[in-house]
Structure formats: C-alpha cells, structure tokens
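We treat protein structure as text, and this decision shapes the records that our systems exchange. We quote a single record here, exactly as it is kept in our systems:
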Amino acid sequence: MSFLHTQHVAGRLAGIYLINAITATLVVIFQWTSSNVAGHTKRTASVALIAGSFSVGNIIGPQTFQTRDAPEYIPAKIIVLATQASAALFAGLLLCYYVWANKRKDAALDAGLVLPLGANCEDEEGRWQNLTDKENRLFHYEY
C-alpha cells in the first residue's frame, strides 16, 4: 500500500494505519521471548535486548525518511518493507527451531537416553535452580 499512487488516498491511509499497528506486536514479542528463555539472568538479558533493539529501531527509522526523497520516500519505504520481511522470516525460522528442539527433547526423554538434569523442574525445588532453557531438559518452547 505504501507504493500506491498519490491519488489513492484511502489506500495510502489504510497503509499508514497498518504500519502503525506494528507497535502492538511488541507485547507479543516480549511474551514470546519471556516464554522461550529459561533462567532469570538469561531471560532478563533477552528482554532487555529486545527493548533496546526496539528503541534503536525507533531512533534510526525516522532518519531513513530524507527530504531529498520527498514526496514518495521510495528508499525509506523499501527499507521498512525489507526490515518487516526479515522480521517475519526470522520469526518463521524461530518457529521451525522451536518445533525441532521440542521434538528432539521429547524423543530423547521418551527413549530414556537423557534423564532430567538435577531435580525435576516441575517441582518447587527445581524451579529455584535457575537452569537455562538449554540446561533444563524438561523445558519446552512455546509457539
């Protein structure tokens, strides 16, 4: 919609509304990060990295809209489209990894090849061991 002719006012307005709706996905990104990272320190660092990256993007993003590119701002629109497409691709790759990792952990536990490390992380004592998602063999990724 960003590349519509200037005469298509309704379509361009709809595009503005859609691009601004991307901010609502930040809540989903925070939740997905928190759910798929175990261990207090690792989870805190991951969420801080997401918040920092989002802030840096909000600082750099408006700088791509240069006055010399007015009124169409084609280079900036291409950058926005490319970053959104790469984010969608990255999310898809993460989904594939989470499915693969869960199947691998389930197969190892079912075959009895791997026993849970330390105490069962489902009980009260196991929750306080601060194991990361890699160390806790009972941890499953959410998707």
Notes: Helices lie at 9-20, 25-35, 40-60, 74-110, 124-127. The radius of gyration is 21 Å. The chain has a mean pLDDT of 86. DSSP finds five helices and no strands in the chain.
